[in-house]
Amino acid sequence: MAKAVKPYNEGESKKVQVSRMFNKIAPYYDFLNRLLSLGIDTIWRKKAIDQLKGKNNRLILDVATGTADVAIETAKRLKPEKIIGLDISSQMLEVGRKKIKKQALETVIELLEGDSENLPFADNTFDAITVAFGVRNFENLEKGLSEMQRVLKEDGQLVVLEFSKPTLFPFKQLFNFYFRYILPLIGRLSSKDPKAYRYLYESVQSFPNGNDFLNILRKTGYKSNKCIPLTLGICSIYVGVK
Question: What is the model's pTM?
Answer without folding.
Answer: 0.94
